[in-house]
Fold this sequence. Notes:
Strand content: over 45%
Helix content: 25-40%
Number of domains: 1
Largest sheet: 4 strands, antiparallel
Order of helices and strands: HEEEEH
CATH superfamily: Mog1/PsbP, alpha/beta/alpha sandwich
Structural class: alpha+beta
Number of strands: 4
Number of helices: 2
Oligomer: single chain
CATH class: Alpha Beta
Amino acid sequence: xxxxxxxxxxxxxxxxxxxxxxxxxxxxxxxxxxxxxxxxxxxxxxxxxxxxxxxxxxxxxxxxxxxxxxxxxxxxxxxxxxxxxxxxxxxx
Length: 92
């Protein structure tokens, strides 16, 4: 699933490459929601970015959170991005 999402984000452009580096599932059995966390890189000749996304569906709606930073900044923001991603939840 994660690789399909990354392919959709990068599209069919030949000069943009997306690489999934990590994925995980967090289940909220109380609210009956699954959260899919994806860490991936998107690279082109013009940029190198690191992304952390969380996706879930509930009540026929798709909810997403995406945080991204230049690859060079990733080591400095990684812990904060993961803290934000891990706190993302549907509350109603």
